[in-house]
Amino acid sequence: MSAYVIVDTKINDPEAYETYKAQARPIAEKYGGVYRARGGDMDVVESDLWSPTRIVIVEFPDMQSARDFVDSEEYAPVKAIRRANADCSLVIVEGV
After folding, report:
1. C-alpha torsion sign, points 96, 42, 71, 49
2. Residue 55 in contact with residue 37, Cβ under 8 Å?
3. What is the CA radius of gyration of the chain?
4. Domain ranges (residues) in the chain
5. Which residues contact 38 (CB under 8 A, 6 or more apart)?
6. Could you tell me how many helices (H) and strands (E) the chain has, helices first?
7. What pLDDT was estimated at residue 8?
8. CB within 8 Å of 73: residues ≥ 6 apart
9. Count of other CB atoms within 10 angstroms of residue 76
10. What is the pLDDT of residues 8-58, one digit of tens each?
11. What is the CATH number of domain 3-44+52-94?
């Protein structure tokens, strides 16, 4: 069953964040990740619990693949770039 990494990102340094984006994509793809949304236009219809900023959705073959990507050694230094240049919330959710 597919799983999705969903990230809401408030980018603080757009130039540095470009480095993150360039390095993260091939690692996600190595774990079977396919980008389904990457910061496109949003229409926030309801925001009682949360007001999203910039949404990224990456589909993985399953929960384990998504977790393996997020926890991988090769992603760790790239994740550090994201954390240094953006505020994020990240969830992994199982598909239906």
Report:
1. negative
2. yes
3. 13
4. 3-44+52-94
5. 21, 56, 57
6. 3, 4
7. 98
8. none
9. 11
10. 999 999 999 999 999 999 999 999 999 999 999 999 999 999 999 999 999
11. 3.30.70.100
> Angle at the Cα of 48 (from 43 to 54), degrees rounded to 5?
40
Give the residue from 78, 79, 55, 77 showing the smallest Cα distance to 5: 55
Residue 7 tokens read as 């990230």
**Structure pTM?**
0.94
CA-to-CA dists, residue 95 to 6, 64, 79, angstroms:
12, 13, 24
Collapse the DSSP code of 83 into the 3-class scheme (helix H, G, I; strand E, B; otherwise coil) and give the result: helix
